[in-house]
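Morning F.,

Quick status update on the modeling queue. The single chain you submitted on Monday has been processed. Sequence for confirmation:
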Amino acid sequence: MENEIREVIGIAFSKKVTISHRKKWIKNHINKNKPMIFVVRHAESEANVGLATSNPEKISITKSGEDLSAKFADEIEINPDLIVISRHYRTLQTAQPLIEKYPQAILETWAIHEFTYLAPSACIDTTKEDRKTRVEEYWDKCDPDFVDGLGAESFATFFKRVQGCFNRMKVLGDSNAYFFSHEQFIKLIEMLRKGVIADASVESMK
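Structure tokens below.
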């Protein structure tokens, strides 16, 4: 049986969204009669608010992110059988309230980490504003096989990783699962779910 993959991209972590709106959104997007997969973006991080960071895997969420993660867990009505995080610390922090609420759920780490297309060694102690030019140059290059340096990933490799995880999600059987991941990973999952992307071509990067 293939699970129905629903997306929850940051809806719980927007300061502009009230608790009642979040509860209504979650209620309207669940089906208690069939297994569900929720793909949740991590809460507000240090990088999101413009702080300088050095290691993509060790970026933490903010105090606001911690508060909203706790509220998100409080609002969940579908008991998880499986909670999945990435190797990036901020997904564990975001998932922690849900892990504590449902200690019986299996906790796993999958390769659902963010797409790191800039070499980390070239981005030590930089903000997202500092990286803006390098980011634009990367996407302007539009080369699926280009690797920026040690620790960076090509778009082609990223695509294969996401596709592999997507296929693995679809055969989870009767498990209700919550995946705590990252913006670009979730965007590509959604494109695969809708069938609007098929390969890691130049067109796919545009």
